[in-house]
């Protein structure tokens, strides 16, 4: 089974990076867009938006943001009406994105929508965000028909000379490229990992770097299919393209692993890999209790949250 987008499509951006990417997708592809965040600065754009108002708390926790978001579930569901596919772009490295991704994806699932989600994971040195992002990703995958994971940390480990901003820029560009081709391609109904490289002139070196980034997140024997996007491939000799496909097929080694290629025009050459995986990835270890099946967890139905309760209680001396 494969995931295929159906019109009309609504892009929902969650958190700072999610909102920026959603706006870029709207401007590039013309899809309708909804921005959701607790920070009004993320919503500074002329499009549909929902502010998760945590006032008067100045620095709300992710649990509080999630708790307040339950009050606007009806508004989010109303915005989804009339759309067949809901595409969620969630920055799981930020408080808003990690807090809202389980809630918004659950609304989409319960509304009978086809849900495609993209989760941006934190850098490893952001230790205070790893656990919460892992729990949010697990729920996002459960509520989505197809989930694509973008791991900036794997790119940074493969290219330690890059700055965090440069890593974000490279992976965001790769994500936009994949989304722009979805009208003409399909995705496996599984978890997929997006890996890429920085812009270099040699596509074979770019492929090597993309595979190295992939290996940071998943074992080769867990890969079930691979879609290779060769940006600028129209300028690459056919023999080199054929050699790249054979290289990937040989690395994965399993005859059941399907490898396909999409060649697109571009000023600079770069390889973007979208690989579907089964089994454990590094993200499953972000939540130490993640190995427990959800049917054995008492509080799985509703994600953890805290709520604001204003109680006018007299002080007792």
Account of the 3D structure:
- This protein is an alpha/beta fold and 317 residues long.
- The protein has a domain at 1-144: Tubulin/FtsZ, GTPase domain (Rossmann fold), CATH 3.40.50.
- It contains 9 helices and 12 strands.
- A 10-stranded mixed beta sheet has the order 4-3-2-5-6-7-9-12-10-11, sandwiched between helices. A two-stranded antiparallel sheet has the order 1-8.
- α5 links the parallel β6 and β7 (146-151).
- α1 (15-29) crosses α7 and α3 packs across α4 (95-110).
- It starts with a strand and ends in a 40-residue tail after the last strand.
Distance between the termini: 66 Å
- Estimate the strand proportion: 15-25%
Number of strands: 12
Q: What's the CATH first level of the domain at 1-144?
A: Alpha Beta
The stretches of 5 or more residues where confidence is low (pLDDT under 50) are none
Can you give the mean pLDDT?
Answer: 83
What is the helix/strand order? EEHEEHHEHEHEHHEEHEHEE
What overall form do the CA principal axes indicate? globular
Strand order, main sheet: write it out: 4-3-2-5-6-7-9-12-10-11
CATH superfamily annotation of the domain at 1-144: Tubulin/FtsZ, GTPase domain
Main beta sheet, described?
10 strands, mixed
Rg for CA atoms: 20 Å
From the 3D coordinates, which CATH architecture of the domain at 1-144 would you assign?
A: 3-Layer(aba) Sandwich
């Amino acid at each position: 089974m494969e995931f295929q987008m159906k019109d009309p499509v609504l892009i929902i951006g969650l958190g700072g990076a999610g909102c920026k990417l959603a706006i870029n997708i709207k401007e590039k592809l013309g899809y309708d867009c909804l921005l959701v965040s607790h920070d009004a600065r993320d919503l500074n754009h002329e499009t549909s938006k929902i502010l998760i108002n945590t006032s008067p708390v100045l620095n709300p926790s992710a649990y509080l943001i999630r708790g307040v978001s339950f009050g606007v579930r009806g508004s989010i569901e109303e915005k989804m009406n009339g759309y067949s596919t809901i595409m969620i772009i969630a920055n799981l490295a930020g408080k808003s994105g990690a807090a809202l991704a389980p809630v918004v994806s659950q609304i989409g699932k319960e509304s009978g929508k086809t849900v495609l989600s993209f989760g941006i994971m934190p850098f490893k040195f952001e230790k205070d965000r790893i656990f919460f992002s892992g729990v949010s990703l697990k729920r996002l995958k459960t509520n989505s028909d197809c989930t694509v994971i973008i791991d900036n940390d794997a790119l940074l480990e493969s290219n330690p000379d890059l700055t965090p901003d440069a890593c974000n820029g490279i992976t965001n560009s790769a994500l936009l490229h994949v989304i722009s081709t979805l009208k003409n391609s399909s995705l496996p109904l599984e978890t997929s990992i997006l890996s890429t490289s920085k812009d270099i002139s040699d596509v074979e070196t770019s492929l090597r770097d993309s595979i190295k980034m992939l290996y940071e997140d998943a074992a080769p024997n867990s890969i079930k299919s691979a879609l290779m996007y060769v940006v600028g491939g129209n300028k690459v000799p056919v023999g080199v393209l054929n050699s790249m496909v054979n290289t990937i097929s040989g690395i994965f080694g399993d005859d059941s692993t399907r490898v396909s290629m999409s060649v697109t025009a571009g000023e600079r050459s770069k390889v973007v890999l979208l690989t579907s995986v089964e089994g454990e990835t590094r993200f499953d270890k972000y939540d130490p209790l993640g190995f427990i099946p959800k049917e054995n967890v008492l509080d799985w139905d509703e994600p953890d949250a805290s709520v604001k309760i204003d109680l006018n209680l007299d002080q007792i001396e």
